[in-house]
């Protein structure tokens, strides 16, 4: 079942929560809606579910207008962050609920319901806990019951709103992997909301990055991470250093004091360079301009991080903990940007970002490598 979202707009009073959003979700895809708090993810999901009515635009399920249909008739399975299981019902009865409340004419026979529920409980690996009550389950187990319950009605579309949000990091990771397997086994078109970039990148076939009621970019996890369309996407998808700069004569220079950062083929003007901490290299200080001062070195699990003051801009640098970090606070170092993206400032038409071409050798030396 593919889903077509066309020019969806939603206002709450004077506030525009969704601003003409277009999105096509292919049949059997697992899509993540990713964005910061308030970007409109949940509102979009609720509109797809039929729990919210848009002010403008269309939602098509398999080419048919879904907005004309009552949520009950959309055949949508919904899983919320806070597993709203029925506390007075066993696991089995919770999963069976959606089938048992169907009108008599559409309700499967008791034995058919029992078979389906048992099959789903096996799938979510809870068949041994069928007679327990929600209060006797862990958070992760409750969330798996919620999923089994959503799947029991054989939905055409599965919608999940921060399904693992309330769980601790380890359980989240386990459930993620498990949801991916489940999705691959069942192939139901699925959309999940998250503000956790790792969750989106790890789990989804495609990631929809949202900001302020708009879609910034849609792409595979690799595309949005490696070829971010906007500075927002770059920044949101991982640790990033943001450096104010200007482009002139094929070079990118620090805006503050003019130190060269790399080469670039693009128009002159103010710009911002984005660089990941692991794409900055520190070398023994040379006698060129590209020199900074190490302010702090500290270890965080698998990484050694350093903060470097580079002409007034504080840069965060990361190297694997098993690589030696030969510098300490107070050392003078040469800063080499190995990779980065240059986003022209003050261009309303959002042109393509430019790849930073790193210098090798002296900071004013030749450009040797094109990314
Ligand atoms: N019923 C409502 N009435 C008024 N404003 C609302 C309502 N629902 C959502 N909003 C506003 O619309 C915007 C988008 O909300 P939405 O819940 O879609 O964001 P989100 O990206 O899912 O955020 P979060 O990650 O915090 O859940 C927010 O600014 C929110 O305050």
TrEMBL record:
Q: Which SUPFAM superfamilies match?
A: MOP-like (SSF50331), P-loop containing nucleoside triphosphate hydrolases (SSF52540)
Q: Name one GO molecular function term.
A: ATP binding
Domain ABC transporter span(s) in chain numbering: 3-237
Translocase recorded as keyword: yes
Record keywords: Phosphoprotein included? no
Q: What is one Pfam family matched by this protein? A: CysA_C_terminal
Q: Which InterPro entries match?
A: AAA+_ATPase, ABC_SmlMolc_Importer, ABC_transporter-like_ATP-bd, ABC_transporter-like_CS, CysA_C, Mo/tungstate-bd_C_term_dom, P-loop_NTPase, Sulph_transpt1
Identify the keywords attached in UniProt to this record, alphabetized: ATP-binding, Cell membrane, Membrane, Nucleotide-binding, Sulfate transport, Translocase, Transport
Q: What is the designated name of this protein?
A: Sulfate transport system ATP-binding protein
Q: Organism source for this protein?
A: Azospirillum picis
């Amino acid at each position: 079942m593919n889903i077509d979202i066309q020019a969806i707009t939603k206002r709450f009073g004077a506030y525009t929560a969704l601003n003409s959003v277009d999105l096509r979700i292919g049949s059997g895809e697992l899509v993540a809606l990713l964005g910061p708090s308030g970007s409109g993810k949940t509102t979009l999901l609720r509109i797809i579910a039929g729990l919210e009515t848009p002010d403008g635009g269309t939602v098509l399920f398999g080419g048919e207008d879904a907005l004309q249909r009552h949520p009950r008739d959309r055949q949508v399975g919904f899983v919320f962050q806070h597993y709203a299981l029925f506390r007075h019902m066993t696991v089995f009865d919770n999963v069976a609920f959606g089938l048992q409340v169907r009108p008599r004419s559409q309700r499967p026979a008791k034995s058919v319901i029992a078979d389906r529920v048992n099959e789903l409980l096996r799938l979510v690996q809870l068949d041994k806990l069928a007679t327990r009550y929600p209060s006797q389950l862990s958070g992760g187990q409750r969330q798996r019951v919620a999923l089994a319950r959503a799947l029991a009605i054989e939905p055409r579309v599965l919608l999940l709103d921060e399904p693992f949000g309330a769980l601790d990091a380890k359980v989240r990771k386990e459930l993620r992997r498990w949801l991916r397997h489940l999705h691959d086994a069942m192939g139901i078109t699925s959309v999940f909301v998250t503000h956790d970039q790792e969750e989106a990148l790890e789990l989804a076939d495609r990631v929809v990055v949202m900001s302020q009621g708009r879609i910034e970019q849609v792409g595979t996890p690799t595309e949005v991470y490696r070829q971010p369309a906007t500075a927002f996407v770059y920044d949101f998808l991982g640790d990033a250093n943001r450096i104010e700069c200007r482009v002139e004569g094929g070079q990118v220079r620090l805006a503050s004091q003019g130190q060269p950062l790399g080469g670039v083929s693009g128009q002159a003007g103010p710009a911002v360079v984005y660089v990941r901490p692991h794409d900055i290299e520190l070398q023994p200080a040379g006698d060129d301009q590209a020199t900074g001062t190490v302010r702090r070195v500290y270890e965080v699990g698998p990484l050694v991080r350093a903060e470097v003051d580079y002409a007034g801009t504080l840069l965060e640098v990361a190297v694997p903990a098993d690589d030696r970090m030969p510098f300490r606070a107070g050392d003078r170092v040469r800063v080499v940007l190995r990779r980065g993206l240059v986003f022209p400032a003050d261009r309303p038409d959002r042109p393509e970002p430019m790849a930073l071409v790193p210098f090798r050798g002296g900071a004013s030396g030749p450009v040797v490598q094109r990314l």
